[in-house]
Design a protein that fits this description.
Elements lengths: L16 H4 L16 H9 L2 E2 L2 E2 L5 H15 L6 E5 L5 H8 L3 E6 L2 H14 L3 E5 L11 E6 L9 H14 E12 L11 E9 L9 E10 L4 E10 L5 E8 L3 H10 L2 E7 L13 E8 L1
Parallel strand pairs: 3-4, 3-6, 4-5, 6-7
Antiparallel strand pairs: 1-2, 7-13, 8-9, 9-10, 10-11, 12-13
Helix pairs in contact: 2-5, 3-4
């Protein structure tokens, strides 16, 4: 989840006492992800802001990424596209509006039901399925597929290999797979451990529909090649809650080999804008791979 543009950072607000005592090692952020996605999906839908949602990528960025993805896919109208981890359908609805037959898959049923209702109301050629992309059983049904929000980095090695196998099986030969991911930048392992903190004071957010403070800690563990985004939610009344998501930063050559083992060959590494080549110091990049 990304910071919302409407969330007001308040550095002058004291950091909650509970958060100040958090001096934890990487191993203590186990399991890798404790965010209650189903619960948060329901709250996310109550945080709609115009054409977007608080906590998700802003609509203008989604517009740009959709346009760039479709340019790379270079598909005729009516072609089939698979949107993995589709959420409330921000990407798939835009692609459907351009005449593509999009299938969205997400494990959180509330956002699937919401996306399905919106597509039906708008008459879009989109279908939405509530299931894990690690359990999908498509077989040569799609001309292209994509996965956003660096979801790749949050998977175990076994889960990542399973996902890539299923993506390859879902694609027709020659189909493109695009995903954004966090990669190890040059000299990252030589950096010291670091932490940054931001505090937001909010009337509501995807964490709660009541006034609260949200402390977002970003912890970097260069020796292990991992990062943690740690959230402490402090309501006006009641006990604080904490959640985190730990992710592994991947190396481009190693990820290319994983893709190749699954039958997907990397064609390009692109910057965040999906238009220019990714520089060695970039962390957030896009990989484009073609199915054999």
């Amino acid at each position: 989840m990304t910071n919302s543009a409407t969330a007001s950072a308040t550095p002058d607000v004291p950091t909650p006492r509970r958060a100040l005592r958090l001096r934890r090692r990487l191993e203590e952020f186990t399991p890798m992800d404790t965010i209650p996605w189903e619960e948060q999906a329901e709250q996310l839908l109550r945080c709609r802001e115009g054409d977007g949602y608080m906590g998700l990528r802003p609509p203008a960025r989604v517009d740009d990424e959709v346009a760039a993805l479709l340019d790379h896919f270079a598909l005729p109208a009516g072609a089939s596209i698979l949107d993995l981890g589709c959420g409330p359908g921000m990407y798939s609805a835009r692609m459907g509006a351009r005449g593509y037959a999009v299938t969205g898959v997400d494990i959180a049923r509330p956002v699937i039901e919401h996306a399905r209702a919106e597509a039906t109301a708008a008459g879009l050629p989109c279908r939405y399925l509530a299931r894990s992309f690690l359990e999908m059983e498509f077989d040569g049904e799609f001309d292209a597929a994509f996965l956003t929000n660096s979801t790749i980095n949050h998977l175990s090695e076994d889960a990542l290999d399973e996902l890539l196998r299923r993506v390859r099986r879902a694609l027709r030969p020659g189909g493109l797979f695009a995903c954004d991911l966090v990669v190890l930048p040059r000299d990252f392992h030589e950096q010291p451990p670091s932490e940054s903190r931001t505090i937001f004071t909010l009337p509501r957010s995807p964490w709660s529909d009541r006034p609260h403070r949200w402390l977002e800690r970003k912890l970097s563990f260069p020796a292990e090649g991992q990062r943690v985004v740690h959230h402490v939610i402090v309501p006006e009344r009641g006990a604080p809650r904490e959640f985190w998501s730990r992710f592994v930063m991947l190396e481009r050559p190693a990820f290319s080999r994983r893709l190749a083992r699954a039958g997907l060959d990397v064609e390009a590494w692109l910057d965040q804008d999906l238009r220019s080549p990714a520089l060695p110091e970039r962390e957030l990049v896009w990989a484009l791979a073609r199915a054999r």
